[in-house]
Every structure is written in C-alpha cells, then in structure tokens.
Design brief:
Blueprint: H1 2-22, H2 26-51, H3 55-79, H4 100-105
C-alpha cells in the first residue's frame, strides 16, 4: 500500500517537473516548483514512515520551510522585473515604506 503511495507521489513529481519546464509563464513555473517541493516533503514523510526513522520528518519540515521561503523570494524578486528582464517601475508605495512619499511632499 505504501509502495503505491510512493509511486503516486513520484508520478505527481514527474508531472510537476513537466509543467515546470513547459509552463507558458513564470508564475506557472514557480507554482510547479512549489508543487514539486511539496511532493518532496510528502515523499520524505512516506520514506521516513516506511523505514521507521522519525528523523525524516524533521528533515521534511525543514525542507518545507526552505521551499516556502524560496518561493516567496523568487516571487518577490520577479515582481520588480518586467518579462524582458529590465527593471520595472517601482510601485507608488511599497508596504514597507508607505509614508515616505507623503512626508517628502510636505
């Protein structure tokens, strides 16, 4: 039964990789990469359960945190760039400094 679960997770990982390479937009590729990372966490959890080593769950949790942080960093990096690679115009107000432009005007 667990062998079937591992096979299903590996098949989903292969499909996520296909989507990552064939995705028409950047966001499709990032979503496929995030999905691949999530499936990796599931695979680590299954492997830890099958082998009877609970320390795999610690590794899976750490990998989940790294996956989440990397996804946010990639999206943040590309949110300030246009598709051709040149820097995009900055937003009027960023969430970190909402009052900077108003204080400079007065």
């Amino acid at each position: 039964m667990f062998a079937a679960a591992i096979a299903a997770v590996i098949a989903a990982m292969v499909l996520a990789l296909v989507r990552a390479f064939a995705g028409p937009s950047l966001y499709d590729r990032v979503l496929a990469g995030n999905s691949f990372g999530t499936k990796t966490v599931l695979l680590l959890g299954l492997m830890g359960f099958i082998t009877g080593r609970p320390d795999f769950l610690d590794i899976a949790l750490l990998y989940a945190l790294i996956n989440f942080t990397a996804t946010l960093a990639i999206l943040r990096f590309f949110s300030y760039r246009n598709p051709k690679g040149a820097p995009a115009e900055p937003f009027e107000q960023t969430p970190l400094e909402p009052m900077r432009d108003k204080e400079a005007a007065s």
